[in-house]
Amino acid sequence: MATATPLLRRKYYALENIQRPEAPELKFYLFHAPAADILEWAAVERLSPSTPKGIQRNLNKTKVRKLEEYLEAPYPNTIATSVVVVFNKDAISFIETKVDGSPVEGRGNLTVKWKGPKAQAATIVDGQHRVIGASNVADGSLHLNVVGIVGADQTEGAFQFLVINNNSSKVSPSHVKALFTDYKEEELFNRMLASGSTNIDEKKITALDYFDRGVDSPFKGEVKWAKNVDGFIVPNALEAGLSEVLNRSSLLMIQEVELETFTQIWITIKDQWPHLWSNYSHLLEKACIQALTAYLCDALEQMRLFSEADVQYSDPDVLKREVKKILKRIDPGFFEVEWTTTGLDTRAGQQLLQSDLRQMASNLRSARAWHINLETVSIASVSEDKTKKGARPKKK
User: Fold this and answer.
1) Is the separation of the CB atoms in 218 and 274 below 8 Å?
2) 16-49 per-position pLDDT tens digit
3) What are phi and psi of 112, to 5 degrees?
4) Contact status, residue 153 vs residue 81, Cβ threshold 8 Å
5) Residue 243, exposed/middle/buried by CB under 10 A (0-12, 13-18, 19+)?
6) Which pLDDT does position 174 carry in this prediction?
7) What per-residue confidence (pLDDT) applies to 75?
8) Smallest Cα–Cα separation from 83: which of 117, 49, 51, 36?
């Protein structure tokens, strides 16, 4: 008869936190443990070493070496950030401390139980380089702060992995699958979008998914594509607009936040001109989204170039403030009147639209009628109150 593998155990003093009362089974335990301990009971990879896609992330040896040098420096360098782990079901037990015979809520002894290196108690969600680097210093005795998540299913674990790692670099779903093989993909997908995540991967969460379903997208529910036939904004309109931001990212100093920048620009436009947010105006047509985005980006570039202050468009508040300044030199009536020029999707058409936006800004700056010398509208369409075909009558 086979002998059962004895359980290995480590005990730590911990604080228990039930962050969401409506989900009492989802608990956090805050404690500290030697790096060597963590490496014993927490897995860095879920699959076998023969399947490299099973690695949480490809181990960056340079990063580990730098961390070792940091900790071995002749002064007491410390690591303040916590390692985040997701404990397996039944891998821990928690007994509250008693004072004068009564338990102290939220404080007690946490026992971690596992069977060995191939049957560990937890998966490292964030901090593998810290754990490995610290385990190579002082025989692994350096204590690291740990946040242990208990009661999380595979979807919750995958969600935490994506959220934590989103700010540093984009994470491919294949990496998540390797760690959390049983997570519910569509549930995770929807949760990421509902949380305002811009963790875009061309194989799964696309920019169009975010535009149409992202919680903070100004285009939410309005993209006309296979996933939403009731929308009215064509997908290539948003792709064209986003490409204008991407093409200027280095000039605007918004590398790695291009999607957020495009989104904030159009949130500001929607806030300023809510009455234009429909298919009864030109505003959300492909030619207009692309041309207006390009015009705004060019203006933002000039404002940053000649400003005495260091303008940071990666700050949403700064970006909103500067976009509002530019919009003051555009009359929203331009997007409601009938346009007399066609073919605005072409390169020449885009140049014409942007030229008209510049001319309009000059007109308003000089206190002239906004439509003077514009190529896309005629005096007749303005004076006779002609609106875009099918639009509601203009208000008097």
Assistant:
1) no
2) 999 989 989 999 999 999 999 999 999 886 444 4
3) -100, 130
4) no
5) middle
6) 58
7) 77
8) 36
Closest CA to 220 of 210, 206, 207, 230: 210
Contacts of 286 (CB under 8 A, 6+ apart): 234, 236, 237, 240, 345
**In terms of residues, how long is the chain?**
396
Return the bridge partners of 242, or none.
none
Contact predicate 13/111, CB 8 Å = no
Q: Which amino acid is at 49?
A: P
Strand ranges inside the chain, DSSP E: 8-17, 27-34, 42-43, 83-87, 92-99, 102-114, 122-126, 143-150
pLDDT at residue number 64:
81
pLDDT at position 315 is 86
Q: Which sign does the torsion angle of CA 335, 341, 347, 353 carry?
A: negative
Give the angle 150-160-243 at the CA atoms, nearest 5°: 175
Q: How far is the C-alpha of 251 from the C-alpha of 298, rounded, in Å?
A: 9
pLDDT for 365 equals 94
The pLDDT score that the predictor gives to residue 293 is: 97
* Nearest alpha-carbon partner for 245 in 305, 203, 300, 171: 300
Predicted pLDDT of residue 147: 96
Q: DSSP assignment of 96-156, as one string?
A: EEEETTEEEEEEEEEEEEE-BTTB-SEEEEE-HHHHHHHHTSGGGT-EEEEEEEES--HHH
CA angle 6, 11, 14 (to 5 degrees): 145
Q: What residue type is assigned to position 96 of the chain?
A: E
Among candidate residues 197, 155, 196, the one with its CA nearest the CA of residue 176: 155
What is the number of alpha carbons within 13 Å of residue 138 lying toward its C-beta? Answer: 15
* Residue 13 bridge partners (DSSP): 109
- The stretches in the chain having pLDDT less than 70 are 1-4, 45-60, 62, 165-183, 185, 195-205, 381, 384-396
CA–CA separation, 200 vs 82, rounded Å? 26
Tokens of 344: 């605005």
